[in-house]
């Protein structure tokens, strides 16, 4: 992993979920996402971002929107401070059981590696500090901001994985 934030995210994934067996990963949690669903959500988020980043690479055009004041405020809360307000996940990132629990960790690692490579390619073409594509809640993000967002987002969800794993073992 070239990016330190992504290396940190990968380490958090391995620490929180790497030693869990398939039964623990797949175990349902009443009213919440299971560990498998959390891992699928992150995988889908990484893949969706990689697909979105492919478009400016192919077209050569950046169409990122300028964030309004509210979007900038929440972007700062999330990216800089790691505070995630309770919002519904974008539909494209909602888990639906498409990734079998026994494949969920490998799929997540692969998706993160792919996203890292895509962000590296986009940065080489457009730079790291130009808004390159839109986030569903924050409007246009730069490569640096995308990396920071995905790191924070992963750490947020790995805390949930640790909580579910502790709850299951209690």
Description of the molecule:
The protein has 170 residues and is mainly alpha-helical. It has one domain (4-169): Up-down Bundle (Four Helix Bundle (Hemerythrin (Met), subunit A)), CATH 1.20.120.450. It is 62% helix and 4% strand. It contains 6 helices and 2 strands, in the order H-H-H-H-H-E-E-H. Helix 3 packs antiparallel against helix 6. It is globular and about 50 Å long.
Question: How many structural units, i.e. domains?
Answer: 1
Rough outline: globular
Residues in helices, as a percent range = 55-70%
- CATH C-level class is Mainly Alpha
- What is the distance, rounded to the nearest whole angstrom, between the alpha carbons of the first and last residues? 34 Å
CATH architecture tag: Up-down Bundle
| Quaternary structure type | single chain
What is the spatial order of strands in the main beta sheet? 1-2
Strand content: under 5%
CATH superfamily: dinb family like domain
- What's the story with the biggest beta sheet? 2 strands, antiparallel
What letter string, H or E per element, gives the SSE order? HHHHHEEH
């Amino acid at each position: 992993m070239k990016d330190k934030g992504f290396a940190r995210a990968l380490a958090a994934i391995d620490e929180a979920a790497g030693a869990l067996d398939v039964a623990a990963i797949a175990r349902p949690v009443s009213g919440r996402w299971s560990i498998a669903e959390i891992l699928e959500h992150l995988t889908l988020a990484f893949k969706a971002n990689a697909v979105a980043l492919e478009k400016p690479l192919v077209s050569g055009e950046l169409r990122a929107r300028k964030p309004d004041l509210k979007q900038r405020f929440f972007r700062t809360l999330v990216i800089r401070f790691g505070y995630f307000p309770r919002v519904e996940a974008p539909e494209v990132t909602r888990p639906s059981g498409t990734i079998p629990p026994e494949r969920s960790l490998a799929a997540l690692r692969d998706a993160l590696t792919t996203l890292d490579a895509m962000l590296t390619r986009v940065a080489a073409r457009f730079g790291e500090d130009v808004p390159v594509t839109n986030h569903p809640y924050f409007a246009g993000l730069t490569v640096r901001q995308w990396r920071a967002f995905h790191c924070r987002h992963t750490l947020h969800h790995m805390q949930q994985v640790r909580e579910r794993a502790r709850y299951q073992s209690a």
